[in-house]
Structures are given as structure tokens and as C-alpha cells.
Design brief:
A hairpin with a 4-residue loop joins strand 2 and strand 3. The protein is an alpha+beta fold and 265 residues long.
Length: 265
Amino acid sequence: MLRKLILLAMFFSFSFSVSAQETDATDKVVDTDKTNAIEETAKVTEEAEKKEDEEPEDFSYSNQGGSEKNRSESVIHLGITPIGISVDSITQPVSLGYIVNEDFMAAFEIGSFSYEDTDDTSTFALDYKNSGFYFRWFPGNSFNIKLGVYHRTFEGSYLVEETLSETYEGETYTYDAEAEATVTSTATVASLGIGNMWQFDWGMTLGVDWLVYNAVLSHDYSYTVTNNVGYTTAEAEDELAKGEDIFKQIHGLPGLLVVQVGFSF
């Protein structure tokens, strides 16, 4: 009986010892995993803080997507051409555009210009009107190719009122002379240009057409001489007829550095 009790006690003692050893081993594994996880988290945090210190957050224009991204988020474009080395720039045209996507924009443009000069004997007046449609294709971020068709009209008038004198057989005679001439030059012009149009994050656009080529597709020219008193009508009409080629050349003049500012939304 005593032997059985001793053997039973030894069995329980051995089982407890094995169980205790297994528990200690498990606790050691868990503690090791926790330590490794804490060390890894600390390492990642340290590296992130170090990178943030070395590379501060960049809010530059290019980092925010540039013109292409901003166009993709816009639909309507409003613009004006305040300055440029071109005939149509003197009309300071305004434009209303539809942004199809980041690659294409279609727009309608219209502008006008009036000039008048008067001296003691004459009055010169000129009206210039420019309207048309154009398309911009953006193969790059801001770089674009512009293709447009325009209707452009010059309307000019020249009025002369003066007193003339002639001497005949020793006598001097004076008389009032008056004449008015009008000229109209209308052209359909195709326009091809290359340039850049930058669009900023808050909607403003700034564009420059570096070079614009204009081709006259059709040209109508007319002139009249009215209220002619004291002048030779034939001579005046001959001079006005020479203006047809001159006006046609003016319609076809190229453009340089044509600036446009606007807003897209």
C-alpha cells in the first residue's frame, strides 16, 4: 500500500514538473514575440520620422497634378486676350470655352476695336471685328496646338472737307470741296498656333500662343466714293482699288506671343 502511495506521489510530481516547464517555455515564446513586435513598430516609427525630417511635405504646383489634372476637373473656361503681337489681338477678344476632357477644349471667341482720328480738314474712322471658333489639343501637360476658323472685318471711312482755290486769268476763285470714301474688307481666316496654357489649382489659367499662322480662305473687298464735290472721283476710286491686296495681306499676318488669361471651373 505504501509503495503505491509513493509511486502515485512520484507520478504527480513528474507531471507537475513537465507542465511547469511547458508553461515557462510558452511564456518565453509569447514574451519574445511581443518584444520583437514592439521593436519592429519602434523601428518603423523612427524611420518614418527620420524621412519626414529629411523630406518635408511638398505643396509645389507639380506635386499637385499640374495643368492636365486641373483641366480634367474643369468644364467651363472663360478667357481674354489682353496683349499680343497680332492684328486680332487689338480687339482684345473674350472667349467662352467647353473643356471636353484633359486633352481637348472647344471655344467661341469675339472682340472688336474702333479708332477715329480727326484734324482740321479730315476725319478717319476704322472698325475691326473678329469672331470665330477654335479648338485646343493638349498632347502634353500645358503644351497645346490651336486650330481655329475666324470671320474678320475691317470697315473704314475717310471724310475730307476743305476750301480749295484756283487762279484763272489773274483771278483767284475759292470753293468748298467735300468727299467721303468707305472701305469694307471681310475675310475668312484659318488659324494654326502652338503654345502653352497653364491651369493652376484654384482655377486661374495663363496661356501664351508662341506662334500663330493665319491663312486667308476667302476675301471680299468693296469701296465707294460719295458726296464728292470738287474732287475727281476716278482718281479716288483708283487709289481705293489698290487697298484690296493690302487688306488681304493684313488679314494673313502671323501672330507672336499672344497672351491669354482666364479662369476655369
